[in-house]
Design goal:
Number of helices of chain A: 13
CATH architecture of chain A: Alpha-Beta Barrel
CATH topology of chain A: TIM Barrel
Order of helices and strands of chain A: HEHEHHEHEEEHEHEHEHEHEEHHH
Strand content of chain A: 15-25%
Helix content of chain A: 40-55%
Radius of gyration of chain A: 20 Å
Strand order of the largest sheet of chain A: 1-2-3-6-7-10-11-12
CATH class of chain A: Alpha Beta
Oligomer: homodimer
Distance between the termini of chain A: 17 Å
Low-confidence stretches of chain A: 194-198
Structural class of chain A: alpha/beta
Number of strands of chain A: 12
Chain lengths: 317, 317
């Protein structure tokens, strides 16, 4: 299972961090642009070249990369090509891929997304892999029938998902922190909550967490964690600790470290921690700027990964 | 504003329906396949040809088409090309485009999606349109800061969004029907709810509805409807009537008519009604099968649109 492989690599490399490949054009030094053109093709080529150099510089010290598909989709079909090529390149270097797609739709549509990103697409009986990543992120607002096609693909192709539970953005609480009534999710009984608590209100993210735990119950691997994981922003340490209790077998994908402000002390056991611009744009950071010029952006990224690994050394898996 | 243009066209054509361009390969007759190949390229070419013939057959009787991006993304970059070409073709025929993308992410990422789908992408100071559709669907789970970049693009480029409120799928209630406490959304005061109701619980979808109404408050056009619309499944007629009260100035995109089971009587005032397979796969329906062979799939689609228009004649805009 992908989750066991991920945890094995985290332990082997002693590094629970993932490099977010979110190539904002502001992060790209001049040297990755092949031409002076400013069209969708040249931008797509530039981000692919940038990514490949970053991957070359970090593949031996991180377990996985997390491309954010929006940063590629933005350039249309050309960008999606660069996205697919980035994934192929990273896989060839032995990295696991967590595709940050945050898709969520009714079942027949979710089937199409799951086939493309995790499974195989059926064309006249031929089953063809398309993006074929190891993990995707999914949005739970449409409910279980919208998440089920992804979980089915996890089972069939040994993949994993991370369901959005508590996101890292400042406004996440507007919906996710709402207090909801009359929960009947059996998971709460296992997680230290008293039966009497069940008739009181809990937050929406806690409710979603209990569902996520339930959805992943029969997909727990040798690592003790389920193929159904959760996105829990590192920017909400108190909530993350509570969510660790509700979801004891759920691995967390924790965005928000570094540029979004979260620190090592904010993280909870059983998390893989994402940093995007903190790593891929490290050469712009005053801390690395004197040592690495723009052409050495990949070396700066490696230095930033090593520093992050050191910072996360106490994080328990 | 796109919303005023949409409503103008609905009234002019006397047709509040939108054709869902969700080309499942099972819907495609043999005649749209150029070759015997079963790869991503040939599938993408086939869906584009299928779409263009459908568009040719219906462009003069419907105000808009709604491509579901998953059905294209499924075939990778080739599919996204077919998606972009479908949009260009439909626009050239004078149709408005409602892109069913259901994106939702933290602000910096939502910016990228909004730029690509509604606005312009900035490459070295050159601002390039990418998909450039009229409306997109967006997911509210991450809260207002995740929706704001789309609304900003609506304002800047005269576009529109439809925020998921109550989706058409059978399991939508699992999250969306949860009862939430202590609402403080000013909109409820305007919508016939008594002040005392505010301390009681309401459902999550009602809460989201009040937010959607608030987000769209200063983007109400000459039509009386806002650029910020809502997705309200036609499969939930009782809830839709309640949502019409909460969101008096919000236009609804109503999926679920036809194949998903909703009828004309289930629809509420101020809706554009989607049908996908009911129209594009009409030639497979026993009702049209005798009259139209597989090569006449586009004619069957036109017949299905005319029947739907007739069925929706009493729907008030």
């Amino acid at each position: 299972m992908a989750i066991d492989e991920l945890i094995y690599r985290i332990k082997y490399l002693r590094n629970p961090s993932v490099v977010g490949l979110d190539p904002d054009l502001d992060f790209l030094p001049d040297c990755v642009w092949d031409s002076d053109a400013s069209d969708l093709t040249s931008a797509s080529q530039a981000i692919l070249r940038f990514n490949c150099e970053i991957i070359d510089a970090v593949y031996d010290i991180v377990p996985a990369v997390k491309p954010q598909i929006a940063m590629y989709e933005r350039f249309g079909a050309n960008g999606v090509n660069a996205y697919a090529d980035t994934i192929s390149y990273a896989k060839a270097k032995g990295l696991l891929i967590i595709a940050d797609i945050k898709r969520g739709d009714i079942a027949s549509t979710a089937d199409a997304y799951a086939d493309a990103h995790l499974g195989r697409v059926n064309i006249k009986g031929m089953r063809t892999p398309v993006f074929d990543v190891d993990f995707v992120t999914v949005n739970p607002y449409l409910g279980e029938d919208a998440v089920a096609p992804f979980i089915k693909s996890c089972r069939k192709y040994n993949k994993g998902v991370f369901v959005l539970v508590k996101t890292s953005n400042p406004g996440s609480g507007q919906i996710q922190d709402l207090q909801v009534l009359n929960q009947k999710v059996s998971d709460f009984k296992d997680s230290g909550s008293k039966e009497s608590d069940l008739t009181k209100s809990i937050s929406l993210y806690e409710h979603v967490a209990a569902l996520v735990s339930e959805w992943g119950r029969d997909l727990i691997g040798e690592s003790g964690y389920s193929a159904v994981g959760a996105v829990v922003g590192a920017t909400h340490p108190k909530q993350a600790r509570r969510l660790r209790e509700i979801m004891p077998h759920t691995f967390f994908l924790a965005p928000g470290y570094g540029a979004q402000g979260a620190k090592a002390a904010d993280l909870v056991k059983g998390s893989i921690v994402n940093s995007s611009r903190g790593i891929i744009a490290a050469y712009k950071n005053p801390k690395y700027k004197d040592k690495f010029g723009p052409e050495q952006f990949a070396k700066a990224a490696r230095a930033a990964v090593l520093e992050m690994r050191e910072d996360l050394r106490c994080l328990e898996i």
